[in-house]
């Protein structure tokens, strides 16, 4: 079994798990997904702020 086959199989299982999870409890899944996106957005916002502060300190 090659690495590509294993990766495709694990990806398929992961996607199936997500679909079943969303199907069984869509409200909770939506809340978790929204929280995840909020956290990712906050992370990138912090990176942009710190990069802008660094660049301003150079100038």
Description:
- The longest helix has 33 residues, at 26-58.
- The chain has one domain (3-58).
- The termini are far apart.
- It is flat, with a radius of gyration of 19 Å.
- The chain has helices spanning 3-24, 26-58.
- The protein contains two helices and no strands.
- Helix content is 93%, strand content 0%.
- The model has no long low-confidence stretch (mean pLDDT 91).
- With 59 residues, the chain is mainly alpha-helical.
Tell me the number of structural domains. Answer: 1
**What share of residues are in beta strands?**
under 5%
Principal-axes geometry comes out as flat
Tally of helical runs: 2
Classify the secondary structure makeup into a structural class: mainly alpha
Question: Averaged pLDDT, please?
Answer: 91
| Main beta sheet strand tally, sense and closure | none
Radius of gyration: 19 Å
The beta-strand count equals: 0
N- to C-terminal distance = 55 Å
Poorly predicted runs are none
State the order of secondary-structure elements, H for helix, E for strand: HH
Which percent bin holds the helix content?
over 70%
Draw up the topology in text.
Blueprint: H1 3-24, H2 26-58
Structure described in brief:
93% of the residues lie in helices and 0% in strands. The chain is mainly alpha-helical.
Key phrases:
59 residues, mainly alpha, 2 helices
